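Quick one, C-alpha cells below:
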C-alpha cells in the first residue's frame, strides 16, 4: 500500500501510488513509528525541495526524522502553502525572496528573512481551526501558477486556460472566464509574488493542455 505522503493543492496529505516531481516537508516528523501520519505539520517551516540533492539518500518516513512529502509540481506545493527550500533550491529561493520584498509595490533593498516569510505564510495558509485559508478573487486578476477551486475541484490558472489537477497529472483544460469570482487556494502573499514575476514550475502534462499562441 502506498504511503500517506502526497499533498494536494488544498494542503491535504493523502495516499496515492502516483509519484510527485517535488519533495518537501513541514518542519519535522508528522508520522509515527508505523509510518502513519499523526499530525498535519510540526512547525511553520513548510518548504519545497528537489527530489535529488548532492547524492543524499533518505529512508522515507524513518523514525524521528522529518516526513518526506511529495507534490505533482511546484505550483501545487505553493498552493499548499510551501515555499522554496533555501538549501537545495537556493537560486529559486533567492528569486522568491526578491519577488516577496516587492510584492506590495515597494522598492525595498533589504532581503526578508526566511523566518519572517514563514510566519506570514502561516497566517495565510491555515486558520485557528487548522482549516485551509482561501479568499475570493476575479479569475482575470490572477497570475499564472495560481490555484483556484471550481465546482469543488482544484484548477491551475495558466494563460487563458484552467487545468484540472489530479494526483497523476493535469487532465482537462477549460477556458478561463474573465469575470468569474472564484475561491483562490494559493496563499495571497504567494499570488502577489507571482505578480512580481516568479513563475512556478508546472508538470509536463500541462504542455498538451495549454493553448499555443
Amino acid at each position: 500500500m502506498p504511503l500517506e505522503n502526497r499533498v494536494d493543492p488544498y494542503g491535504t496529505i493523502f495516499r496515492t501510488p502516483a509519484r510527485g516531481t517535488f519533495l518537501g516537508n513541514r518542519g519535522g516528523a508528522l508520522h509515527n513509528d508505523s509510518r502513519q501520519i499523526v499530525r498535519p505539520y510540526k512547525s511553520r517551516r513548510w518548504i519545497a525541495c528537489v527530489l535529488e540533492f548532492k547524492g543524499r539518500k533518505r529512508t522515507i518516513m524513518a523514525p524521528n526524522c522529518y516526513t518526506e512529502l511529495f507534490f505533482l509540481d511546484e505550483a501545487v506545493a505553493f498552493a499548499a502553502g510551501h515555499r522554496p527550500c533555501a538549501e537545495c533550491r537556493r537560486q529559486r529561493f533567492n528569486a522568491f525572496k526578491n519577488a516577496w520584498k516587492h510584492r506590495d509595490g515597494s522598492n525595498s533593498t533589504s532581503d526578508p528573512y526566511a523566518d519572517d516569510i514563514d510566519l506570514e505564510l502561516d497566517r495565510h495558509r491555515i486558520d485557528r481551526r487548522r482549516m485551509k485559508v482561501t479568499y475570493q478573487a476575479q479569475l482575470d486578476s490572477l497570475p499564472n501558477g495560481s490555484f483556484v477551486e471550481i465546482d469543488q475541484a482544484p484548477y491551475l490558472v495558466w494563460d487563458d486556460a484552467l487545468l484540472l489537477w489530479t494526483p497523476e497529472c493535469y487532465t482537462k483544460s477549460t477556458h478561463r472566464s474573465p469575470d468569474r469570482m472564484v475561491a483562490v487556494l494559493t496563499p495571497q502573499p504567494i499570488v502577489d509574488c507571482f505578480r512580481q514575476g516568479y513563475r512556478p514550475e508546472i508538470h509536463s502534462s500541462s504542455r498538451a493542455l495549454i493553448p499555443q499562441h
